[in-house]
Amino acid sequence: MVSTVTALAAAVVVAVSGAAKPGAQVDFLQSGHWVFNSVLEAVFHLDGASGAIDARAAMPGAAPGSQVVQGETGGYVVGGNRIIEFGKSDLEVKKSVSPGTDERPVAIEVAGGPYLVYRQAGRIVRLGDSLTTVPAGGALGEPVATSAGSVWVHQPASGAICELARDADRLACPPGAPAGHTGGLTVVADQPVFVDTTTDTAHPIGADGLGQGTALGIDAPPQARFTATDVAGRIAVLDPPGHRMHLVDTGPAKSPPVSVDLPAGDYAELASAGEAVVLLDRAKNAVLTYDPRGQLKTNVPMPPGEPRLARGEDSRVYVDSHDGGHVLVVAGDGAVRPVPVAEPPPPVAPPPPPQPQQPVPPPAQPDRQPPAQPQRQQPKPPAQQQQQPPPANPASPPGAPPGVRATAGNAALTVNWGAAAPNGGAVRNYHVSWSSSAGSGSKTVGGAARSTTLSGLANGTTYTITVTAENVAGRGSGAATSGTPIAPERSITLSRGSSVTTIDDCSIPECAYMRIAAKGFTPGQSYTFVPHATATSYRGGSSTRTAGPDGSITFEAFHFDQIDETVWVTADGVESNRITWAKS
């Protein structure tokens, strides 16, 4: 509905202003942003102007970390080698297809699209009534698009620069960059531009290839990255190794470039919001915005994980948290609005209108004729108005659990949290989800629980954990933290164990088992223990044991009876202490 109203308003403006090309079709501007919340297993539509969540569609089975891109009539959940299409009008799943790769594509929302650009696979997918795949002939750099619906790509290996025009099914490649030149694409004033970092020049791209270059006035490294569109007419150039950003003017009235020293961080992505440049610092999980003069406007933290940055067709920049539970909306001037992504609260019924008061009848007048025995007439007491109890407020989803933290263990994390605000309905469950490069999962515990242990995790891998409370009205906003399981140092301690009296070839009282106590091994994994002795004739065999939940293994095995000989045990490359066998 939001998209339709915006499109109709845009159509009226075009009709009144005469800005549309003769015979050109009217394009529906896609407003707002869709995000997939992997904890709630649903997609939500966020109105960029108000920051309100105004639509929801269940999306069970979508891969955690999926991104959502929208077209005129449909939305597409992309992730895990799967594209799920749903209708924007009825919010129902239409179909699911496989793109043939689990690579995370660059999503572009533009007229005639949307598009998915698989850079490593070297192909472009146009989504819509039918899925159209266009091969690009090799790995691609960062793509850009114009408002007319043309997608431009650069092949770094060959230097080719190609256009996929709106509704076209193949690429058109005018003469590109010279062989061996590094660089990338951007769009300035809705015209594609190639920034050559070998010659430090910017070249407009036309039907005949690259136009005359304009000097950048800076030394752009080969690893430089650029915003897909200009920032108030300037090209934003990110120098990741140098921790610098440059804002370069290539227009006719060329102004000197502005250079900004960035705080220490890992600046992986950048985008233009129109009058501001947006930077994503993965080291601190923070979003920074700068104005065209290079002045820092905002520095807003994000929940732990791997946030994702996207530019909507409404020119706003949206930064999604890893689990889709939080979105930062960056307006054109660089202002940032945090938005929690959760179930919209149910509407609150207005209180009933006040009941009009009934008039109190006046007291009866005494008879003017005096009776034989006059009695004083008592006035009737006024009727007591019945008090109506105030209407009960309906429950809304609970608040985010406070104080979420994770404590590292061996292949495990212990998660603790505080009680979430019930918001009119008792919390009946807490849902705990986790995700990392090694995998993901979820579990549900009761409403009285304040901690749980996640086991079977990969040591040395950072996990993003989200805890969400649920009551009768549904799930609320999630609170996130991160943790990294740590494997303790592995060790094996050997000592003399129980005496043995039932083995014929073992002397008494010298005969006893070896006692093995191992720690720090991977829970649930089996290990083979082998005994060793300085006695050359000893052959003790081996014993395979499985580590417990805490990574420990304790057992007795390997009988031995040779006094003054030294024994020890090994398992998976770990050697125990050595002891000299003695009489009991």
TrEMBL record:
- For this entry, the protein name equals Fibronectin type-III domain-containing protein
GO MF annotations, alphabetized: hydrolase activity, acting on glycosyl bonds
Which residue stretches belong to region Disordered?
Answer: 295-317, 337-406
Transmembrane regions listed in the UniProt entry: none
Enumerate composition-biased segments (Low complexity).
Answer: 374-387
Extract the PROSITE patterns matched here.
Answer: FN3 (PS50853)
- What is the organism of origin for this protein? Amycolatopsis albispora
Spell out the Basic and acidic residues composition-biased ranges.
Answer: 308-317
Q: Where is the composition biased (Pro residues)?
A: 341-373, 388-401
Among the GO biological process terms of this entry, one is: polysaccharide catabolic process
Residue intervals of the Fibronectin type-III domain: 397-491
Which keywords are on file for this protein?
Carbohydrate metabolism, Glycosidase, Hydrolase, Polysaccharide degradation
Gene3D superfamilies given for it? Immunoglobulins (2.60.40.10)
